[in-house]
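Item description
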Amino acid sequence: MLTPLRNMLRSPWAGGIFVVVIIAMAAWGVTDIFAGGSGNSFAKSGERAVTDRLFDSTLERILRTQTDERGRSLTKEEAMERGLVDGLFQDLTRETLLTAYADEQGISATTGAIAERIRTDPIFQDTTGVFDPVRYSQLLDANGFREADYEADLESEMTLSRLQRVPIEGLRVPIALARLQAAYSGERRGASWFMLQQSALPEIGEPTEEDLLELYESRKAALREPERRGISLIHLTADDFISESEVTEDDVLAFYDAYKADRYTGPDTRTFTEFAFPSESVARAALGRIAGGAAPESIDTALSSQERTGRRELISNDRLADQVFSPGAQTGSIHGPQPNGDQYIVIRLESITPGDATPLETVREQIETELARDLAIGLFYDALPQFDDLLGTGADLETIAEGIGTPVLSFAPVDTNGVTKDGRRFLPLVTAPGLLQMIYAQAEGRKTERFGEDEATWLARVDTIVPERLPEFEEVRETLVAAWKQQQQSQQLQNVSAEIEAAIASGESTLAQQAEKYASAVESLPRPITRANTELQIPRPLITGMFAANEVGDTFALPGLQNQMIIMQVTSIERPSGETLDLLAQSSAIEIQNGVADDLFAAYLLGISTHVDLDTNPGAFEAYKRSLVTEQ
């Protein structure tokens, strides 16, 4: 129901109107809701710019959290190939445009607001909840941030958040619209149904010769067999060298000792004293005595104190649990105060008992497998130069395979999708990236280049080429008979479904009578459902059909599984009562507000792009991307 409004808000002129509205809001004081480098530029607007240094440092931080399918860190070149570099350029360019506009309107995040955000961020606070400038600097450094860069990032984030809140601040959803949406989403319906199976209908007879010839003529395009190619393949992987990997006892022992603490030792238990105080100020006043080792009973301002021994789940406050059970926590360290209900908790760590270590013999096989795999990867890469030397001599596949000690795999002719004439598909052909495309670019008898990915490589040859052809009628007679029967059965199933619908609609019969007639059983929903239906596993087409009905008793048919139709009848329609409707309207208003706000912001962004000058330097950006290819 909101489609016309949303379409209007996405129009270019709506963006211009919204810019005028925002400027007016700034002039009228509505912006009170917001109170609280060097290098080549890839994009610039006003005082804002995306420099090569800013872009590169941002990309490096992003890549700290990006891995490939094998869990390894991505390089900048790999990031570029996956579209991450172009995506980052678009994001930073958009950010530059918006923050430049915010500067122009005087609604950018202030220095004071940024400082307050940093000061109150729990991640930068010490164990007592006070901002720690040393921790702040250390965390930024560990994550690749200079303080100025982090604060600039934070300023942009806060400014963009303010801009995105502008539409919501100006929106008020009419109660009538909210109630209408609530009535739509809150309506519940019940239904009953039965399955009409093809097997319950009379058998289809045999087709005539004329039927088959007519079907053959109409399906010539589908019957035509595509070109297929016979392929021979060398597929060399690191796994081929596992049997050659020699893992010694010293290797196993060294690996076990190196990773014993991290991988083969269970979680430790910790003994700590937990103090409960009536307020944060009282708790802070007692920190000195607690840190000095005072006996729990001597802390008379504490509501209670108790010594506890166990694991992380003993502590209900997540932040305290993280601190007390962090790897760097030391005996005697003090943590808190942190709120827990109407009290404030302080914890003193008394002792740490290491977890039990898994015996070497229990994990020996696992370690040997991992070490053998690592050695095999090295042997694989050692074999590649020999592979390339043999390939460079012009040797055939069999000679190359013999030289590197691997077999040649041969496959029956396949099409461009890797499928044989009888429908088989060979896994090595469809998993090799780009293999079939390369095969179909070669002449008969020619080899592809050696290609592959980490820890696997391929080399293929076109052995035979089978041209595309249209099979003769007699070759596909059985296929045509099966297709004709399937076509007739489908039509029969639809015709009978229509007859059932008509019989029930006229009052001549009921859903239960029709189910009995076709040896089926009536099923019903356990309870009425809404259009959203997050409770029961009901196929979406059935829900759509059920709510398309106009009144109780409407019956309709929908396709089920193969050779099956579902005959469904609406048995109840429950619309929300007045009191329920008012409650639902509250959440509906928020949904409508957020949806329209998103559309308004899209229009707003469109208007800003015409109102604010943005200069981009595609040449500098392309030069940067070229540098990534040779930089790694």
Observations:
- Confidence is low (pLDDT under 50) at residues 1-38.
